[in-house]
C-alpha cells in the first residue's frame, strides 16, 4: 500500500497531462492540443510526451492558453512547439510547422541570421535576447504575405533543454513607419519643382527612392498644345483630355509599355482610367478581375521583393473638385501586402499630395492672366505652406512614433523580465518542495524500517524549507498579479472602460484597513508605519462618505508599495506615515508645497461624485532614498521610471503612478509630490466625495455579526462547482483544511442534480442522511450548463417551491470586469470573487452572504 506522500505524487503526475485532453473552452486551442498530442513524438529527439518533465508540461500548458504568441525550441534539433496565437501568424503553414525541427520550416529559416542571434544571446546572456521588426514571408491563401515580428527569448533553466520566446506582431507599426518615410521621400523630392515637367520627374524620383509599398510607377501625362493668348501677350497651354503620353516609368528595364494611350479605347484598364478622372479618386486595378494588364505586372520584378504585381491603383492629378486632368499616375501595390484600409488611406494621402501639387503649379502658371487667378494662387500658396507644415508635422510625428516605439519595446522588455523572473523562482521553489517531500518520504521509510522515531531536527529543517518555498511562490504569484493588474488597468483606462462606483465608507475603518493591509509588509522591512486623521476631518465633520473605496485603495496601494520599496533599503530609522484630511475646495492646502500634475482626463460626469460636496486628500510620506531633479522630471510618465538604475534595483513596470494619476483625475481630484535626494518623498492626492450618513443598523451588511464555527460539528457545508479539475481539487483541499465540508460538481447540470438529492429539495425533509448545502461557489464559464444558467434554474426552483430555502451563491470568475459581476448578481447570485484569489479572500465573501 502506498503512503499518502507516494499517492499524492502519483496523483500529481497523472494530472500533469490533463491539459492535453481537458477542453479549454476555445475550439481552436482544443484542436491544436489534439494535433499536438497526436504527433509521433516517440520518433522525435525529445521523445514521447509521457517522458516530458513536469516543468516543461507546466510551461507548455501556460503557453497554449496564453493570448500572446509564444513558442518553444526544444531538443538538439530545435523542435518547435507553439501556441494557437502564434499559429495565427503562420497562416497557411499552421499547423504543419508544429512539432517539426526548425530546419524543416522554410518560412522561418529564411531569416536564420536573426534566429541565430537571438538564440546566441539567450544562451550567453551577454546582451538582451530580443529582435525587433524581423521580416518573414508566410503563405496566406497560397500568396506570400510580408509579416514583421519582434521577439524576446530566454533559455529554459536546466535540466530543460531548449528556449522559450514571446513574439509580437509588429507588422502594423513597421509598415506605418515605412510608409511615412516613403511619403516624406516624395514630398522632399518635389519640394523645389516649379513647373509641370519638373514635377513629373520629381514625383517619379520620390517613388524611386522608396520601394517597400510602391512596386512600380507609370506616369502618363496629358498631351498639350499651345495657343497665343492676346489678352496676356503670351503662349497659353491647352490640355488634350483624351490622349496621354508615357512620360517616364519606375520599374523593370526589360518591360516595354505603350507610349500613347487614348481614353476613347474600351480596354478594361482604360475604363478604370475614365472612372478615376470622373470621380477624382484612386481606382484599383487587379489581375483577378482582368483590369491590370499582364505587361504592367512585370514592371515590379526589379522592386519590392521581385514578384509580379497583382494590383495597382490609378491616381488622377485632380481631386473630386477638379475639372482638368494633367496626368495619370499608375502605382503598383506591393505584391506581398494586402490592399487593406490602411493601404488605401495611404494611397489617398499620396493622391491628395499629387493633386494639390499639380493644382498649385497650375495656379502659379496662371497668375499672369487675371487678378482672380492671383487670389486663388495665393490661397493655394497658403495651402503649400500648410502642406509644408504638414510635412514638418509628419516628420515630427515620425520622431514621436519612434520614441513611442522605443518606450513600448522598453516596456515589453521590462514587463517580460518582471513576469519571467518570478516564474523562474516559482519553478525552482516547486522543485525544492518536490525534493523536500522526497526527503521526508525517505525519512518515513527509514523510520519504519529501523523502527525508530523520525529525527525531529531533520523533519523541522525540511518543513522550514517547504514553508520558505511556499512563501516564495506566493510572493512571486502576487507580484505577477500586480503586473497583470497594472496592464489591465492601463488597457481599461485607454479604452474608457474604467467606472467609478461610489459606496458608503466609514473613513476611520477605511484607514484602519489600510494599516492592516500593509502592517505585515512594513513590519518585515522594519519600517514604522501608521495612519492618522488631520484636524480638518473633525473640523468639517467627516465620518461617513460616498466614494469608490476600491479605486482609492488602488492608488494607495501603488503609493505605499513604492514607499516601502524605496524606504526598505535605506540605513537608520525608517518610517512611512499616511494622513487623511478634508477640504471644501478643490485647491486643498496640502498641495501648496508640492509639484502638481496636469490632469490627463476629465472626471466621470455620470457618477454622483461629479456634484460632490467635500474633497478628501490623502498623504503618504516616507523617509526613503528620495529623488533627484532629473528623476523628479520623469514622474507620472507612461512606461517610465525615475532612472534605469531604479528598474535594475527595484523592478516594476513603470505604470503605477501613471495609472494612479488617471484614477485620481477620474474621481475629480489631482495628485502631486515632493522629494529630495536622501530626504524622503511625499505624495498627496485628492478625490471628490459626498458626505453620507451612517447606514441603518438593521439594513446594512456591515452590521451583520461575523459568523464563527465553534467546532467541526458546526462547520459549513458547501457545493463547489468548477469545471477545471486541477482548480477544483486544489480549492476543495484548501477549503476542507479550513473546516468546510465540500461537495463538488463539474458543471451546472451536475450541481443542479446534486441539489435534487439534498435535504433542501421538496419532499426530502430534513433527514441527516442527505447532504446539506449552506452555500454554493459557482464558476461562470463551464460546459454543458454554465454558472449563469444554473443559477437561474436554482432560483426558479426556489421560487416554485422545489428548493425549500434560499441557498447563497458566490460567483467565481476569471473575468475581473465589474459588468460581469453585476450580471451574475442580476441573475440571482449573492456576491462574487475574481480569480486568482486566496481562501482568506473567499472567506470574507462567505461571511457576508452566509448568515
Automatic annotation (TrEMBL):
PROSITE patterns: HIS_KIN, RESPONSE_REGULATORY. GO terms for molecular function: phosphorelay sensor kinase activity. InterPro entries: 2C_system_His_kinase (IPR050956), CheY-like_superfamily (IPR011006), HATPase_C_sf (IPR036890), HATPase_dom (IPR003594), His_kinase_dom (IPR005467), HisK_dim/P_dom (IPR003661), HisK_dim/P_sf (IPR036097), Sig_transdc_His_kin-like_C (IPR004358). Keywords: Phosphoprotein. The keyword Signal does not apply. The modification 4-aspartylphosphate is found at residue 779. Residues 414-691 form the Histidine kinase domain. It holds the Pfam family Response_reg. Residues 717-850 form the Response regulatory domain. It comes from the Eukaryota. This is Histidine kinase HHK15p. It comes from Aureobasidium pullulans.
